[in-house]
Specification:
Oligomer: single chain
Number of strands: 0
Distance between the termini: 23 Å
Radius of gyration: 19 Å
Structural class: mainly alpha
Helix content: 55-70%
Order of helices and strands: HHHHHHHHHH
Strand content: under 5%
Number of helices: 10
Shape: globular
Length: 301
């Protein structure tokens, strides 16, 4: 049990390292002004960040998902496993319900973590050398938000995070379970790692597609007020104003970088988990495919 948890943490860390640059691009595209856009698209955003802020600009805010990784792993693995056992039968519906339960509960940690990540990613946009920083790191960011806005500020975007995470984790676990069964993931199979890479990557893509418009709203709410102007008074107000000003395409902004990120993140996570378990345990004791699901919120998928 402890080894599975450790493997999930190592795999999750690998996923964060691979996927964070894509997440930074996604957030920048989601929250940029429609009147004065800084970026023309995914590639231009990548190019501009590296040119203006160096390659390290792509990794702004990485401390927050790294800090929350262990706790999110504990919640996701624990809740999903216990829910499946409580439901008594491993069926597609129960996989969806167990995944949804795991996604809902981990919002307690995921929401503040993504708030800090978003604020850090937007800090110093377009500046190669920051002359002044509002936040030294992710922890300092959360402390300052708490001092200024209290618990409500720390949990900004909680409802939208819940609306995103609950169904997306359900679809994630359902897709992963269905694909691994269909592909026949067995330890003796010489193609087990490619199969897990495919199953994990496709599961990540499906989970993101299922709730992506909600993620756009979440990012906008969490970034609201960063530049001194508060635009939105809640989820519905954000939806109305975003649609009125930018049309339906606003709800797909940043989707390309998100999908480009989803596959390699989950592929990296599954490959790392699998290799870690195979290294730590002899194959004689592996009776079934033991790689745990990639737990990057769909924030981190």
């Amino acid at each position: 049990m402890a080894l599975d948890f450790l493997a999930g943490c190592v795999g999750g860390a690998a996923g964060v390292l691979v996927g964070h640059p894509f997440d930074t691009v996604k957030v920048r595209l989601q929250v940029q002004s429609v009147e004065k856009p800084l970026y023309r698209g995914t590639y231009h955003c990548f190019q501009s960040i590296i040119k203006q802020e160096s390659a390290f600009g792509l990794y702004k805010g990485i401390g927050s998902p790294m800090m929350g990784l262990t706790f999110i792993n504990a919640l996701v693995f624990g809740v999903q496993g216990n829910t499946i056992r409580a439901l008594g039968k491993d069926t597609p519906l129960n996989q969806f319900l167990a995944g949804s339960a795991a996604g809902a509960i981990q919002c307690v940690i995921c929401c503040p973590m993504e708030l800090a990540k978003t604020r850090m990613q937007l800090q110093g946009t377009g500046e190669y050398n920051l002359k002044s920083k509002n936040y030294k790191n992710s922890l300092d960011c959360l402390v300052k938000i708490y001092q200024k806005e209290g618990l409500r500020g720390i949990n900004r975007g909680m409802v939208s995070t819940f609306l995103r995470e609950t169904p997306s984790f359900g679809f994630y676990f359902l897709t992963y379970d269905s694909l691994t069964r269909y592909l026949g993931c067995e330890v003796e199979d010489s193609y087990i790692i490619p199969k897990l890479l495919l199953a994990g990557g496709m599961s990540g893509i499906v989970s993101w597609l299922s709730t992506y418009p909600v993620d756009v709203i979440k990012s906008r709410l969490q970034a609201d007020g960063v530049r001194g102007v508060v635009q939105y008074n809640g989820i519905l107000d954000c939806v109305r104003k975003s649609y009125r000003e930018e049309g339906w395409r606003v709800f797909t902004r940043g989707l390309t970088s998100t999908l480009l990120r989803a596959f390699p993140v989950n592929a990296a996570t599954f490959a790392t988990v699998t290799v870690f378990l195979m290294y730590m345990r002899s194959e004689e004791n592996l009776h079934e495919c033991e790689a745990g699901p990639a737990i990057q919120q769909p924030s981190s998928l």
